[in-house]
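Progress narrative, work stream C.
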Amino acid sequence: MTEQRKHEKYDALISSCHALAPVRTAVAHPCDETSLAGALDAAQAKIIKPILVGPEAKVRALAASLSLDLAVLQLVITPHSHAAAEKAVEIVRAGEADALMKGSLHTDELMTEVVRKDTGLRTERRISHVFIMDVPTYPKPIFITDAAVNIFPSLEDKADIVRNAIDLAQSLGIAVPKVAILSAVETITSKIPSTIDAAALCKMADREQITGALLDGPLALDNAISREAAAIKHIRSPVAGDADILLVPDLEAGNMLAKELSFLSDADAAGIVLGARVPIILTSRADNVRTRMASCAVAALYAHARKVAAADIGKLAG
């Protein structure tokens, strides 16, 4: 498989941003090479317009050591990482940025500010994480949720996790995403609680408590992504073998699945947090340039879709 073919799904996402205005993005504490260079790469590609938030001396020294030009970028000065997280969230709350990006601080440090009751970015939705995986052996991007935020989600949590992933998929051009609700088996049994949750979520979709997608579950992973496996087990479903979204039972299962795909199947994993007022870009030091760019592209496309939806609602209200 050629390098171009391997990354064609991410290339398509990045290309989709070319016709859109760069999204104003508050970058919290960009004080290592990965976060600072990643933000500038995405800015150069006109995907985002970074607002760097962090200690001036540290950011400028790092930029100089990497031969990066900060002349055209806004730098909001804070003394340390905690203050950078707080200020970046404040910038978003003030309407001065439409996305938030994690720099070289711990995820918990940023998310603590995001979820603060009075000064954070919470909405009525549960906050959740989605990996947008570019798997060379799968014909389209596949979404895995939640593998980074919700450890043992309840049924109600899973409903919001699904809603967040559906919104994201639709913003990326998937009109009616197919959601596979994963478990170890495809039959419902009280001995495996995730099968009960899967059945309940499907009934919630039937009752239009969850809309905009096709849901099916419980499905084992093979039935979710392989038409042959689904046929062998006589599973007749528009979702089985053709899933866009994989809803995992808990964080452990999701994290292991995403990392298995990354390290055993040569997949890339762009990541984004949803359910807050704006999309939150979570990058890892292990991410390559293309993955960081894809994470920014996903956030930009989602932010633009949210703006269009809000404008349409405004027109109807008017």
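Work stream C, second folded protein:
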Amino acid sequence: MKIAHLILAHKNPAQLQRLLDNLQHPDAAFFIHLDKKIDAAPFAHLFQRPDTFPVHRRTKIYWAGFGTIQGILNGFAEIPAEYDYINVISGQDFPLQPADYIHRYIAERKGKEFITCQTIDGTSEWGDVSPRVRRYHLINWRIPGKHRLENLLNRILPPRKFPMDHELVGRNNWFTLSYPAVQYLLTFLRQHPELIRYYKYCWGADEFIFSTILYNSGFKPHIVENLLYCSWETGHGHAKTLKTADFDALIASGKLFARKFDMDTDPKIFDMLEDRTKKKR
């Protein structure tokens, strides 16, 4: 089972190196998209590894903006067809299982698409997030007064109508998809540029775009929950930064990965997770 890990990173090269070390496997490779806003030089040594490659077409990424989607699409386009699965994670994620276990787990479920697809209308644990796609959001505009303009647009214009007859679903942006599913996404978006235009005026569109396309396709019967643990208990749309106190919850989750971690905030949690995975090898 050959896995390409597509990693979106924007900080802390030492933490990213630790992530690569813990996911290293003979059948794994790493494609790293570095936020175009940052200096790539501190990360240069990582690309001396024979299994690690830069995503050459970099884009600027802002929280809840379209840049996250563009960075993923850029990575998809540069990953060759030799890989069975593409695992999309961030540089602040970390494995909860040894690399051998991860590869076996996915191989035993080959053909599944690991991407969470919850409804947006309030009937799931996600709550009612429909305003994120039904209202105009100028999150990608870097201009003064954009919030006043955004409020004006939503007062004078009717609710936005999605350009396709799709049931909208989503949740976490982080997922693990088969290579054919990824190619389907790329082809579908090339054929439907109106979707790109629509999502550029949504808030946090990365949590909808890929899941919705697959959910409304022939891949739907193969969709299962994603493989990553994430806690949203802090609210405000930000994932909780996980610490040593979260260790038991991480292990009980049964997931293969978790986010998010910060080496500057709590380095000990990395030691605890590494010690556990070493014992399981």
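The chain has a mean pLDDT of 96. No further action is required on this item.
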